[in-house]
Design goal:
Shape: elongated
Number of strands: 0
CATH architecture of the largest domain: Up-down Bundle
Helix content: over 70%
CATH class of the largest domain: Mainly Alpha
Length: about 350
């Protein structure tokens, strides 16, 4: 395989470009203060550091493989390749998983299971290096495939739980949702694993480098556009709220949220609303559940009703306006969020609803 690419100037240039990109991306995330791409977003510091670690590991592993382009001894090439595979299994692969886990901010997930998952890789890699043999590689490839499928299944489940958590705690979901990221990352992961079974020729090596570029660009964008969210604590056990107050949450919401139009505040969290009405997040969440809705739906319904009132007032007064302007005045951070919430509540798009009123 390496004989076919060692004299391919285009591939060597591509390989060097990917190596340089990952090194620069790692330094950028570690040493730059603030965002270059989304200045109004404060990204999770933990995610930023782990992503920088992934980029650093990817760059170092690329540097390790570079001597293969110049070595002539088959044994030296094999040793470099096997040690590189061992380094990949100990650094790059687990760091990818850690980065994905840190995108989920509903709770801190333990990292020790990752060490257990990669242990067979490490043991198998050490055996291959010690025996200077590829005999175990097919078995390790099968394990990699099964492990990748298992990780995808887990991430699908975890992402669904994260989505429920977001809607239970946040009114605006901009810069918070991550399910699109996991679809892309899972697809890339499975493509790499599948391709490793099909071919390890030059085309595979080109594909790996192109995917490396895509990952650098995408992860940089993802890190800088994902808002840092606070992990709520369970405040149900030490709450001394009187039962009468607990049962009157609906009245409190009317007084402090609806009458005072608190729902117009951008990015109002469930914790902030709970504090404003004099209860806690746990009881407020229980109240919404008993009403068959979540916090996000409650706030968006109030905002949609506010938009409808503003629209009718503007039409009656024959005042010029834009839908985007009214949506923003109704508390929505972006028009896309407003459009989706409006269609969910009314079953119609905004423009179809407006036409029906004419």
């Amino acid at each position: 395989m390496y004989d076919q690419i060692r004299e391919n100037t285009i591939f060597i240039i591509l390989y060097a470009v990917v190596t340089a990109m990952t090194m620069i991306a790692s330094c950028y995330l570690l040493f730059r203060q603030g965002n270059a791409f989304a200045r109004d977003v404060t990204p999770p510091l933990r995610l930023r550091r782990w992503t920088a670690a992934y980029f650093a590991a990817a760059a170092l592993c690329h540097l390790w493989y570079m001597p293969i382009f110049f070595l002539t001894s088959s044994e030296d090439i094999m040793m470099t390749d096997l040690v590189g595979g061992l380094l990949d299994s100990m650094t790059v692969f687990p760091l990818v998983i850690i980065v994905m886990l840190n995108m989920l901010q509903d709770r801190r997930r333990p990292l020790w299971p990752i060490a257990l998952m990669i242990a067979p890789f490490v043991v198998g890699g050490i055996f291959c290096v010690a025996t200077l043999s590829y005999d175990l590689i097919p078995m390790l490839d099968v394990y990699l495939l099964l492990l990748s499928v298992g990780i995808v299944i887990y991430m699908v489940r975890a992402t669904r739980q994260y989505g429920h958590w977001l809607r239970d705690n946040y009114a605006d979901l901009e810069h918070k949702e991550v399910w699109q990221s996991f679809v892309i990352l899972a697809f890339i992961l499975l493509v790499i694993v599948f391709y490793a079974f099909v071919s390890e020729g030059p085309l595979f090596q080109y594909a790996i480098q192109v995917i490396g570029i895509i990952l650098v660009v995408y992860l940089l964008w993802r890190v800088e556009t994902l808002s840092e969210l606070s992990i709520p604590v369970n405040d149900a056990e030490d709450d001394n709220l009187p039962l009468s107050t607990r049962n009157s949450i609906g009245i409190l919401l009317q007084q402090h949220c609806i009458d005072k139009q608190l729902y117009l505040q951008h990015d109002l969290t469930q914790q902030q609303l709970a504090t404003a009405i004099g209860t806690n997040r746990f009881y407020l969440s229980q109240y919404f559940s008993s009403m068959g809705m979540n916090y996000n739906a409650y706030i968006n319904d109030l905002r949609i009703n506010h938009f409808i009132s503003l629209y009718r007032e503007a039409v009656a007064a024959q005042r010029s306006f834009t839908i985007q302007q009214l949506a923003q005045e109704s508390g929505f951070y972006s028009y896309s969020t407003f459009s989706n919430a409006f269609k969910h509540k009314t079953g119609q798009s905004v423009r179809a609803w407006m036409k029906a009123l004419i």
